[in-house]
Amino acid sequence: MTERNVVLVTGAGGWLGSLLVNALLDDPKTPDVQLVLVDIVEPKAPAGANAITIKADLTDPSQVDGIFQTSHGIPDTVYCLHGIMSRGAEDNFDFGLKVNVDSVRLVLNAARRFGSDIGRPLKFIFTSSLAVYGGPLPEVIKPDTIATPQGSYGAGKLLSEILINEYTRRGFVDGRIIRLPTIVVRPGAPSAATSSFLSAIIREPLKGIETTCPIGNSLSSPELDLAVWVASPETTVKNFIIAKHVPAAAFAPHTRVVCVPGFTATVREELAALEQVGGKEAVARVRFQDDATNRRIVSSWPARFDNAYALSLGFAVDEGGMVPVVERFKQQVQAGLA
Ligand SMILES: NC(=O)c1ccc[n+]([C@@H]2O[C@H](COP(=O)([O-])OP(=O)(O)OC[C@H]3O[C@@H](n4cnc5c(N)ncnc54)[C@H](O)[C@@H]3O)[C@@H](O)[C@H]2O)c1
């Protein structure tokens, strides 16, 4: 049976969810895509899209089956993006597990049942995170590096990954697990992610607003050498689409986890890129107030990965480091889009 290009997106009202929706509409490999957009907050469909929008709380079992039973028919592909972010999951352990694990399992079980109804496992694309890694780590993370999370968000993501891998091994779904770097620059209001400041220290100054960097106490603090693993939203969304098109047989036989490509940047390099793009007056809008909890969590995440496996599967990588990322964001600010 051929795919009908019906794509269900959970978390469609969120940042990456809404970027993904636009990318799906532009994907020449999924012409006439029919979308089912789901979020706990009423998601918006782009003008002209063939989209059904559903407001649903996916932690409520009674609301899950309905998202698979719309007039578009059973989806071929599920993008499972809904979730609560790192600081939210760290500060509220039970709620974090409920959203980042229990509700993912509900959606996964529904995908299994509806896939069985149509006699073909649904593609199940899940956005995981580098936060699955922590503790003593090698200098460079490789596909065989064992994930030992040191935060509740990463632990929740890893639990969901294991379920998706197992459901894939059993043939219940065709899982694709993409471990994302931290995505910068995020527009809009600060999020509940521990990494939120990595966007805020670019975004707010370029918008003429002061912001507080929770790493270090001044521009000369050694803490600013903290390195992070990042990717731009443009490349990330491209990789969401690629994740759908990678042939199942191309993945390593024992896992569907792929650490999608990113690059290393230090907080100091981010601020240097800000200065290059926005000038000294932009950097002067960054205040410093070291937050030990925030720094501990971000420091526990790895900052260097071997991109080779992901690149061999066809995933894309940012070129040119932070400066082009900050330049693109400045253009969005100037266009009133950020
Ligand atoms: N942004 C990043 O840097 C980054 C990095 C790694 C992984 N991720 C993962 O990518 C995904 C998308 O991230 P984002 O930055 O767009 O986050 P986001 O917070 O902007 O979007 C998440 C969406 O999930 C929705 N949601 C939360 N609970 C829900 C529920 N019970 N039922 C239905 N919807 C619910 C929220 O309303 C929100 O719109 C998440 O799974 C996140 O963990 C993001």
TrEMBL record:
Higher taxonomy: Eukaryota, Fungi, Dikarya, Basidiomycota, Agaricomycotina
Keywords attached to this entry: Carbohydrate metabolism, NADP
Pfam family, one: Epimerase
Protein name listed in UniProt: NAD P-binding protein
Boundaries of every NAD-dependent epimerase/dehydratase domain copy: 7-208
Organism expressing this protein natively: Gloeophyllum trabeum (strain ATCC 11539 / FP-39264 / Madison 617)
